[in-house]
């Protein structure tokens, strides 16, 4: 639900202050999960976008994921 996401999003915004970069990094990770990559955290039956945002909040990846996408 929305209430479960708000707290991690505050953490995420402090880690990746540029909203566009945050959106691109989370999108890239969510697409990898949706296409069959193994999530780095327990999914709790959540959608790939929620899992990606939780992983980002937990520090499992950051904006550097975009550097990997470019290579």
Describe the structure.
There is one protein chain. The chain is mostly helical and 71 residues long. Helices cover 65% and strands 0% of the residues. The chain is built from 4 helices and no strands. Helix 1 (2-15) packs across helix 3 (48-57) and helix 2 (19-34) packs across helix 3 (48-57). The longest helix has 16 residues, at 19-34. The chain is globular, with a radius of gyration of 11 Å. The model has no long low-confidence stretch (mean pLDDT 79).
How are the SSEs placed, and which strands pair?
Layout: H1 2-15, H2 19-34, H3 48-57, H4 65-70
In short:
The chain is mainly α and 71 residues long. The chain is 65% helix and 0% strand. The protein has 4 helices and no strands.
């Amino acid at each position: 639900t929305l209430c479960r996401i708000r707290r991690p999003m505050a953490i995420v915004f402090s880690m990746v202050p540029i909203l566009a970069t945050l959106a691109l990094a989370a999108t890239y990770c969510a697409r990898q999960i949706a296409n069959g990559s193994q999530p780095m955290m327990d999914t709790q039956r959540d959608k790939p976008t929620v899992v990606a945002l939780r992983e980002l909040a937990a520090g499992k990846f950051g904006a550097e994921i975009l550097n990997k996408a470019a290579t």
